[in-house]
Structures are given as C-alpha cells and as structure tokens.
C-alpha cells in the first residue's frame, strides 16, 4: 500500500510538474508554486503574540509541501487591531517568539511571509475606528475619516511593522489590500469618498498603498520582498473598479511589489461545486502585466492548480483547504481526488466558540 502511494506521488509530480517547480521572484526563490493564503488562525494570544499552536500549524504546513505560507493578518498599530486574539506586528518584544516560529518553517525549506494590515472600520478592538471616510463600523460605532496626520502615521506604522517582521525572520511581508479592511476601503469606490489626493482617481485611491511600499523599502531595504493582496472585484462600481485594476497593477509593479495575490470580496459566497472563482480575472491581468501573480479562491485539487498555472498565474494559493487538511498536498499526490473542504465557512467562527477549526475534523 505504502509503495502504491509513493508511486502515485511520483506520478503526480511528473504529471503536475510545473506545480512542483521552484520559482524565482524578484528577490525570493520558492521551492514550489504552492502557497497557504493568509488565514487568521484565532489561535494567537490576547497579548498580541503568536501562540505555540500557531507555530505548530506553520511547521505542519511546511512539512507538507507548502512552499510559501502567509500568516493571518497581523496589526500594524493598536488603532488597526481587528480582533482580541489577533497577532501584532508592532511589538518588538515578540521578535524572539516569532524568530523561533520562522526558524521552524525554514528548517523544512519553506518560506514564511507576514501579512500586515490595518483593519480600518473593521477594527473591533478600538473605540475610535478610522477609515478613509466617515462610515459605519459595526457595533453601533462610526469610523471617522482619517486625517492627513493619521495617514502618515499609518504609512510609518506599516514600515516599522515590516522591519519587525524582517528582524523576526519572515522572508517578506504582504500588505493586505483585500477583504474590506483599511487599504481595501481606500482603493474601493463607495468606502472612499475623499476629495483630497487619497480619493477619486485610481492613482489617488492606491496612493496610500504606494506610499506604504515605498516606506517598507526605505525601512527594510530595496531587496526585502513586499507582496500585495487585493480584491479582483468590488461590491460597488464593479466595472470601474476592474478597469482601475490595470492601473493599480502598473503602479504596484513600478514601485517594486514582489507579486500580487488576487482574491475577491465574495469568496465566502460560492458553493463547493464552484472552483477557481477568479480565474478569468487572473488570466486577463497576466495578459496585461508581467507582475508575478498568485491566485486564491476555490482552488481545490491538482487539476484546478494546473488550470491556474495554464492561464499564466505564477503560484496557486489556498486557505480553507489547508484548515481542513494541512496535509492536503501529500493527500492529493497519493490519489485523493480533491480537498474535503465543503465551503461551509464555519472556520470563520466555529473555532472561536468551540475551540475547533473545521467541522470536518477535530483540532
Ligand atoms: C477563517 C478564515 C480566515 C481568513 N483570514 C484571512 C486573513 O487574515 N487575511 C486574508 O488576506 N485573508 C483571509 N482569509 C481569506 C483567505 O485567505 C482566502 O482569500 C479565501 O478564503 C479564499 O480562498 P479559499 O477558497 O482557498 O478558502 C481568511 C479566510 C478564512 C476562511
């Protein structure tokens, strides 16, 4: 039986050869094309540190063929903290704890990138949430429109957090511009009603992201990899947003982004029968730009991964499948047809209430 599985593993590597080929980005080489997308684990400590459960999880992924993993969103300032047990990237005292964690990942030849974020109106911990423009922030709160001073402070906070990530052994950072948090609010129509240089045109709405990347390059050096995750679609002004995406890509490439990870605001809404939610958008962007592209959303098996690479995307990324089965890649290589994830989305909340991460298994 063991021999059969080994045989199937070898076949899978030959058949899906590209997935297992190393990739050279601008400043980073990764052993294969498989990414664990940023996923808030809800297992971190309320003092802002990653827990031993987080470190165990990352090491398990690294030992199971994930070439690059991206941490769940970490906050760059107390104002941007989304949840009580979210890890911080703004507290230098946790550098040694994070260094142990990144060392464990590196011992398996994998890379680990820290996602850095400000939750904007989604910051549930602060009494005074901030957003590009005044807006509802949930829980009866109103987010105020950020002043120029606050924007500059936030840009600096991203730079300082990236430096802490670098000192902690992370191979790079990913700036979180997706899923409705602060930077997503800035690039989106609807949430951003500003009339100054941070609102209006595509160039203006992406300005804060550009300034953050420039600041990170200043604090961490030109060579330190800066990834960006962004929605490929938008709840408001969908057509205009998609047109702007081409301009965003040009600007991100010009400012030295390492790669762009493409997601979507509606990733939770698809049934398990729908795969590769944003494939067409990835194909269109790859025809337009050479900026390396990582695609996430509904990728569930080796055929899906192959399809993603065939349209020109450079890496495949998954979140829920790795919560469900951290050893998904060896399973697929041993003949399992597809991820067991059923897109129930209970991983968004179940573990908070019951200490479980997935309804498909315990622990
Ligand atoms: C429980 C959970 C937590 C998530 N946390 C983050 C996060 O911290 N940062 C982020 O960019 N995306 C986060 N996501 C979104 C995923 O990274 C991914 O974009 C999305 O789940 C679609 O991919 P999938 O179909 O492979 O799950 C989260 C998703 C889930 C289900």
Helix/strand layout:
Elements: H1 2-15, E1 23-24, E2 29-30, E3 34-39, H2 52-62, E4 68-71, E5 74-75, H3 95-106, E6 111-117, E7 130-131, E8 135-136, E9 142-145, H4 148-167, E10 172-177, H5 182-187, H6 202-205, H7 207-220, E11 226-231, H8 238-254, E12 259-263, H9 279-288, E13 293-296, H10 302-310, E14 315-318, H11 320-324, H12 328-333, H13 350-354
Helix pairs in contact: 2-3, 4-7
The structure holds flavin mononucleotide.
Characterization of this structure:
The structure is a single chain. The protein has 13 helices and 14 strands. The chain is of the alpha/beta class and about 375 residues long. The protein has a single domain (about 20-315), classed as Alpha-Beta Barrel (TIM Barrel). The strands form three sheets. Strands 3-4-6-10-11-12-13-14 form an eight-stranded parallel beta barrel, surrounded by seven helices. Flavin mononucleotide binds near residues 263, 297 and 319.
Query: What is the total number of structural domains?
Result: 1
Bound ligands: flavin mononucleotide
Name of the CATH architecture: Alpha-Beta Barrel
The global form is globular
The top level CATH class name: Alpha Beta
Secondary structural class: alpha/beta
Biggest sheet descriptor? 8 strands, parallel, barrel
Number of H- or I-type helical stretches: 13
Strand content: 15-25%
CATH topology: TIM Barrel
List keywords for this structure.
single chain, 363 residues, alpha/beta, TIM Barrel, 8-stranded parallel beta barrel, 3-stranded mixed sheet, 13 helices, binds flavin mononucleotide
């Amino acid at each position: 039986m063991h021999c059969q599985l080994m045989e199937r593993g070898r076949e899978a590597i030959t058949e899906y050869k590209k997935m297992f080929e190393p990739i050279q980005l601008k400043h980073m080489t990764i052993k294969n094309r498989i990414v664990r997308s940023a996923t808030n684990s809800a297992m971190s400590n309320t003092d802002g540190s990653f827990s031993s459960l987080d470190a165990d999880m990352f090491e398990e992924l690294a030992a199971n063929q994930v070439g690059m993993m991206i941490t769940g969103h970490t906050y760059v300032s107390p104002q941007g903290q989304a949840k009580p047990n979210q890890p911080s990237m703004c507290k230098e005292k946790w550098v040694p704890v994070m260094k142990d964690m990144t060392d464990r990942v590196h011992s398996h030849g994998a890379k680990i990138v820290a996602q850095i974020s400000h939750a904007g109106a989604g910051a549930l911990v602060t009494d005074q949430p901030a957003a590009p423009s005044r807006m509802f922030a949930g829980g009866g709160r109103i987010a105020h429109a950020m002043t120029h001073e606050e924007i500059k402070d936030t840009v600096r906070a991203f730079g300082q957090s990236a430096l802490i990530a670098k000192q902690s052994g992370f191979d790079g950072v990913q700036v979180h511009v997706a899923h409705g948090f602060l930077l997503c609010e800035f690039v989106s129509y609807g949430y951003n009603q500003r009339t100054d240089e941070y609102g209006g045109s595509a160039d203006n709405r992406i300005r804060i992201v550009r300034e953050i990347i420039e600041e990170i390059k200043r604090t961490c050096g030109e060579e330190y990899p800066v990834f960006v995750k962004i929605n490929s679609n938008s709840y408001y002004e969908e057509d205009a947003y998609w047109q702007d995406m081409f301009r965003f890509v040009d600007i991100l490439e010009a400012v030295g982004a390492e790669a762009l990870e493409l997601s979507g605001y509606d990733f939770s809404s698809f049934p398990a029968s729908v795969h590769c939610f944003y494939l067409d958008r990835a194909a269109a962007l790859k025809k337009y730009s050479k900026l390396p592209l990582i695609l996430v959303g509904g990728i569930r098996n080796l055929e899906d991964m192959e399809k993603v690479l065939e349209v020109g995307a450079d890496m495949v990324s998954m979140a829920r499948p790795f919560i469900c089965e951290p050893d998904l890649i060896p399973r697929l290589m041993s003949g399992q047809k597809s991820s067991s994830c059923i897109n129930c989305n209970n991983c968004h909340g179940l573990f908070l209430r019951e200490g479980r991460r997935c309804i498909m298994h315990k622990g």
